[in-house]
What we know:
The chain is built from two helices and three strands; from the N terminus they run βαβαβ. With 71 residues, it is an alpha/beta fold. The longest helix is centred in the first third of the chain and has 16 residues, at 12-27. The chain starts with a strand and ends in a 12-residue tail after the last strand.
Amino acid sequence: xxxxxxxxxxxxxxxxxxxxxxxxxxxxxxxxxxxxxxxxxxxxxxxxxxxxxxxxxxxxxxxxxxxxxxx
Length: 71
């Protein structure tokens, strides 16, 4: 019960890590779960992304095309 969970992913793994973090927070609401996602493709709606801003941090480098490919 004293452990925290950090989920990390890159590219497609970052999208998966983001979705997994949302599922885990719903399943274990009392646990501290944080996600660091690098070059994340769009996997969430804008509204859901804003509501998850406190525990999912996404990083994009310069003009990386992966995060900008689709809406």
